[in-house]
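sry for the spam today, last one i promise. struct tokens for design, 205 residues
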């Protein structure tokens, strides 16, 4: 069954409606874990919190137990929101995490993701429904990796901003920031952000 999702004008958005309307749930624990997803919940967002220290990883798996991507690969402490199933393959059956410490995962529907506008701020990884629809300025940490990926109805996912300090500016300055203009046109329906720190979106000056 196709879900009905509304765009910013209130009209039915059949493309977003193809994603399952997952009922939100939360699970917490300690140590490595495989979390089975409810039937039909092949796509959604996950807000993950890893408390303590050490490497932390989170990835989706298909019904054979094979990884279908990487959602989080970092060093704790960490809190951020990532997504699974954005490719529409409908093959995600579980989430697997590796962490030697306590953690919490909150799983929600992509349809409930917050709106990205020309005046959005955040900190770390995030997932949005795009309501910016045009050129925006994004300011982000200059001492860490930062990327923005747009998912559209008629095109493959596109990295609309990819920043690697050593490659782009040749010097890592702790606490510095960078600003880049990004085109988030109306075809970009879902936007994911990967960041090592705080960021903000503003109307292009």
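last one done:
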């Amino acid at each position: 069954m196709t879900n009905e999702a509304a765009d910013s004008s209130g009209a039915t958005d059949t493309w977003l409606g193809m994603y399952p309307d997952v009922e939100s749930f939360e699970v917490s624990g300690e140590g490595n874990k495989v979390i089975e997803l409810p039937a039909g919940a092949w796509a959604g967002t996950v807000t993950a919190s890893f408390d303590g220290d050490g490497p932390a990883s989170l990835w989706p798996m298909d019904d054979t137990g094979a990884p279908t991507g990487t959602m989080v690969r970092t060093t704790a402490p960490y809190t951020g929101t990532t997504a699974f199933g954005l490719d529409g393959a409908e093959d995600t059956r579980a989430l697997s995490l590796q962490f030697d410490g306590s953690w919490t995962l909150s799983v929600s529907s992509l349809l409930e993701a917050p709106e990205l506008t020309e005046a959005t701020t955040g900190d770390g990884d995030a997932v949005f429904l795009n309501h910016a629809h045009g050129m925006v300025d994004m300011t982000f940490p200059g001492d860490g990796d930062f990327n923005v990926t747009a998912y559209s109805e008629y095109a493959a996912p596109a990295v609309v901003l990819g920043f690697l300090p050593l490659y782009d500016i040749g010097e890592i300055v702790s606490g510095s920031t960078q600003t880049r203009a990004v085109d988030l046109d109306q075809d970009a329906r879902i936007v994911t952000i990967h960041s090592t720190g705080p960021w903000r979106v503003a109307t292009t000056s």
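The longest strand covers residues 44-61. ok im logging off now
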